[in-house]
Amino acid sequence: MSTEVDFYELLECERTADDGTLKSSYRRLAMRYHPDKNPGCGESEERFKAISEAYDCLKDPQKRAAYDRYGHAAFKQQGGGGGGAQDFSGFSDIFENIFGEFMGGQRGGSRGPQRGADLRYDMEITLEEAFHGKASDITIDVSGVCEVCDGSGATKGTAAKTCQMCKGHGKVRAQQGFFVVERTCPTCHGAGQTIADPCGNCHGEGRVEKTKTRTVNIPPGVDEGTRVRLTGEGEAGLRGAPAGDLYIFLHVARHPLFERDGTTLFARTPISFTTAALGGEVHIAGPDGVDHQIKIPAGTQSGRELRQRGAGMPVLQGRGRGDLVIQIEVETPTSLTSRQRELLEEFRATETGKECPQTSGFFKKMKSAWG
């Protein structure tokens, strides 16, 4: 990649996302940006390559661990070749981790039990629900606190003890020649504590799989991709650690009449050629349930846009509303009665060319161009 964009940002995931979330997000984005679906679009092709590179790294546990610790610097080539300048950015953090004690760094405290993972839930709503907002119940399968041991992971009447291997730090250091290497404690797996008598219900983790129902309050004015956060409703933390968060990603279903751009609503509106010529009005039923009456000026042409102020979508977490814009399409009649045809023939017989200046002007230019 020519630019070092964060891999998690490319995959639209939190850094605590589990393998399943990463895989699901990658598949969704890969389908969106695949070159076969976007022929000739160089930007989509580059985006597809970028998300593929990001997923290839993060799906591998060892590569992901290295990336989480050192970022893109973990995969930079070191050494000669080509005589070009080498990029050593980011290596100050690596040296601090390796030589921490020799360079005056302080040894970190106990990591403690790990915070629960954040979860993602995709919800589809209608345009009308996006307009008015709604409260919706969702049901998810998630790790919750074990009620038998109250999340401690230990059998009732017992307690976790400080890990003797790492002395509660969650990390151990080993000297290999000149280097001092720090890694996660293999005994407590970074928790800093061990459990001699684990809870039989959760097997020492302090959490079990549960089915939970939660209410999601969707505010008026939400748009495609709006994210609603439910704090503490994600995966339960290990052995009493804080729970992660639950993120609700909203997807607004396609509407048969309206298209949306921010707070502005667009509607392609066909009108008869007599209404276009003589003027009139149309009635548009908005997502607010109101019948909006829009006047059509005489002589309106196809493609003209007429705007109704304040008849669009509400401003998210704000005041006011956007506009409703109708895009006029003048429809030519395809089935005429004999009387209608007779009237149109009479009209054509009276035409002077001034009625349709664009048409007469076009043919005058054509005649002039060809002498």
TrEMBL record:
| Residue ranges constituting the J domain according to the UniProt record | 6-71
Q: Where in the cell is it found?
A: Cytoplasm
Q: Give the matching PROSITE patterns.
A: DNAJ_1, DNAJ_2, ZF_CR
Q: Where are the zinc fingers (CR-type)?
A: 133-211
Where does the record place the CR-type domain?
133-211
Q: Name one Pfam family in it.
A: DnaJ_C
Q: How is the cofactor bound?
A: Binds 2 Zn(2+) ions per monomer.
Q: Which GO terms describe its cellular component?
A: cytoplasm
Residues involved in Zn(2+) 2 binding = C163, C166, C185, C188
Gene Ontology biological-process annotations: DNA replication; protein refolding; response to heat
Task: Summarize the protein's role.
Answer: Participates actively in the response to hyperosmotic and heat shock by preventing the aggregation of stress-denatured proteins and by disaggregating proteins, also in an autonomous, DnaK-independent fashion. Unfolded proteins bind initially to DnaJ; upon interaction with the DnaJ-bound protein, DnaK hydrolyzes its bound ATP, resulting in the formation of a stable complex. GrpE releases ADP from DnaK; ATP binding to DnaK triggers the release of the substrate protein, thus completing the reaction cycle.
- Assembly and oligomerization: Homodimer.
The record comments on the domains as follows: The J domain is necessary and sufficient to stimulate DnaK ATPase activity. Zinc center 1 plays an important role in the autonomous, DnaK-independent chaperone activity of DnaJ. Zinc center 2 is essential for interaction with DnaK and for DnaJ activity.
- Record's protein name: Chaperone protein DnaJ
- The species this protein belongs to is Sphingomonas glacialis
